[in-house]
Structure formats: structure tokens, C-alpha cells
Amino acid sequence: MRSARSRASVLVSALLLATAFPWAPAHAGGATVKTSATASAAPTLAGRLAAVRTARSINYYPSNAAWSAMWTGFDATRIDADLKKAAALGADNVRVIVFPQAFGYPQPQRVYADRLQKFVGLADKHGMTVKLTLFDWWDGYSDAARSIAWAKAVIAPYASDPRVIAVELKNEFQPGDAAAVAWVRRLIPAVRAAAPTMPLTLSVDGATGSPGMAKIKKALAGTPLDYYDFHFYGASERALAEIRKAQAAVAPTPIVIGETGLSTAEDSEGEQAAFLARVFRAAREAQVGSVSPWTLTDFAAGAIPKNSSVSTKPAQYRFGLHRADGTPKLAATVVRDAWTRGATPNNVLDLSFEAATGNSPWRANLTRAGAATIVSGTARTGKQAVRFSGTGRTDAGLPSLLTSPITPVQAGHKWRAEAFARGASATGTTEITLSWFGADGEWIGQHSSNRLPAGTTSWTKLVVNATAPAGAAGVQLHLKSGDNKGTVWFDDVAVS
């Protein structure tokens, strides 16, 4: 397959594309403007694929014009400012989605082709390459011939342009749709013939996951993809297990994590930051070199077109690393550190409870039996600690405050967690536990620390040492206090 992608075929295809599609960029008088694309050697498939596999990539729509509205209300000034912000985080690539309905089909309108060309130029200005995604909001699978013509027309100017490093033929492809499979089997060889050095991929959504990737690989055995784009929105404490499942499903073809994130409409900004830190750490452990957060910014009210099913879902507006007003969330710092320093430090876990409101990833559990509160004036160190007072229990257990570590869980690895606790007329059970979960989220068991003595006590270290049991893929650290008629405080947690 790849032996046919010779340098000669690249040059011939480029000439044919320029002839076939008259709106491909040209310069007055036949002069060539020396851009980063024309100044560089023609890209190779191997070179582009290597760039894809290590890309520090961000998913992007403007905060005020998401999905197709980005193109119908194209604002070059805003896009320029946003890409500058992405580059400051360390991004060197941006994924952008192109819509047949917006661009014109089956022949793209010149105005939209020019807007795409402008976008690629703005990305290049900020040192970023582009990944193009085609055919979102698309189910015209009976129209393969015109789909091919449209795809070729969109890709034509970039077949030998190093500023564009990959093409995703369909966003979140559904391998169980026979018509879709038949359509993409025709699309892949046609696009490949037109742009032999352009890596081609498909993505799958979080529900389809690794089983769907395996189905795609089997269905496309005769027209294989160059890499697979895995969208991960699952439990971040089990990210390593999910990534490895995805790798195994399509091996030896490489994967990237083309979308991942957590909405702050449903979780705290602190948990969003911890989610991304866990995914970056797990990807590094699995040797997946490209993780692409969804998305750069939140979306303002009305930014998502009303004809999109996601426009009525509040969570879809709040996945950004920045808020809609442009101010950064804690997640922006996590991504910048991962991209620029290769670091995902544990301090994002707020182990001493000093984080600003909303920036802590700790989550309350079994609150019907009592809820923890962050309080000042009683801390062991710093200014704040966690307090439980007047708690009970439920059939499921004791109330707790929980989080999961940044380091991914692997069976057989040793773990240690500790926290300091003190009581005032405390009763019942106060302890910390490590609760283990399997790859599908099933509870496996737990390890518990020594317990805080009843009564009024000084700060006492609670410690649990454990080995991750067979089948463990995730762990939760719980600070528990139940059946407690008095008061207990926790502070200065550590987990490794």
C-alpha cells in the first residue's frame, strides 16, 4: 500500500489537483510567495505521521461561534487572538472541523475555501500546523461520488502543504452503520490517490470506544487507515486501561487521543484539571505522544447553532481550558505544564485543601449521612482543613471526601496514602481507605488505614499501605468519618 506513495506520485497528484480545482490558491503574475509551506521540502507520509503522533494539539472553535458558525461568521481577528493564546500554552497544532453544509456541497464555495486558507495561515503564523476533520454532521452515505469530489476539492490546496499534517475523513464514525462503512471504503482510496502523503484517520466517540475501533480496523482491512483517533471522556482514574484497550484494538497501527476533557458545567474546575492531568500521565505511560484537549475555550450562550443537537446540552458549553470571557481555568495550567515541561504534578489534587473555591478536585460521597466542609482556623498546616461533624452512615457505607491520584493504577504496584486527622468528642469510625476498581468500573475491594481513636485527640497520622490487586485499573482515596456524634478534621494528605 505505502510503496505506491512515491515522490513522483506526490508531484503528479499536486499538478493534477491544481488543474482540477480552479479555486486552489494562486498568486498574481505567476509569482510564488515564499511561505513556510513553499519554503519547505514536500512533506512525506512518514514525516507527517510522525508529526501527528507527537502533536501538542488543541481542538478549536471560537467562544462565540462554534461548529459551523465558525465558518459562516468567520472572524479572523478573534481567531488570530485565540491561536496566539493556544500557542502560549505550548500548542503546536490545531484541529479544525469543516462542514459540507457550510462550505457548499459538492463544490466548496470560494469564500469558504478562502476562509480555510486564512485559518491555516493564521495557525502557521503562531507556529501551529493543522489537522483537518471532514464530514461532521453528515449522513449522506449514498452519495459517495459527490462526497469524494468534495473531499478532494477541500484537500487539494494542502496535498503537499506541510502546514496541514493529517485529514480525519469523518468525525466520530459509527462502524455499525453498514452504509457508512461502504461509503468510507470508497472515500479512503480516492482521497489517498489524490493526496498520497496525507495521513488519513477516523475517530470514534466515547461510547463506541475500543470495540468500535476494532470493528473499523476489521471493516477497513482492504483500505487501512494510517492511525486511529481515540476520543476519551471516560473515568480518568482508569484512563491507562482504556488507552491500552484502544491500542490493542488496532495494533500495530498507532493511536492519538484526539479529544478529551471534562465539562465544568457538571464538575468543578479543579476536577477538570485533575481529569486532564490523569489523562496526560496515562498517555505518557502508554507511550501515546499526542493528547488533544477539547476545547480551547468555553462557548457563550447562543454560540452553538440551534440545528445542532448539542446546542441544548449545558455541558457542551463548558469544556474549555478558558472561560468564555477568555480567562484561564486551572486546566490551562495543567495543559501548559504537560506540553512545555512534560510534567503533571500532584499539586493539582489540592492535598492540603488550600485551593480557591472551585479549584479542588475533591468530591463528596454519600452526603445523605453527612458532608465534609472546608473550614479555616483549625488546619494542621496552612489555613484550611476538612471537617466532618455529626455524621451517620448509609447502606453503602460511611460518608467521605474522595479523589483519585494522578498516577495511573497498575496491578501489582505498591501504593501508600496518608492523612492527618484529629477529633473533638469523636465517635464512630474515622479512617482513610484506598478503594480499587476494575477496567469496567467494577468495585474490587479496599484497603483501610489505622483508625483515629475516639474522643478528643491531637493530630494523628493515618496510613494505608497496599498493593494494587489483580485486575485493578483505578483507585479512589477516601477520607471517611461516620457514626460520628462529634467532630473530626483532616489535613495534609499524601498519596503515591
UniProtKB/TrEMBL annotation:
SUPFAM superfamilies: (Trans)glycosidases, Galactose-binding domain-like
Residues annotated as signal peptide: 1-28
Keyword DNA repair: no
Annotated TM spans: none
Superkingdom per UniProt: Bacteria
Keyword field: Hydrolase, Signal
A GO molecular-function annotation: hydrolase activity
InterPro entries in the cross-refs: Galactose-bd-like_sf, GH
Protein name in the entry: Glycosyl hydrolase
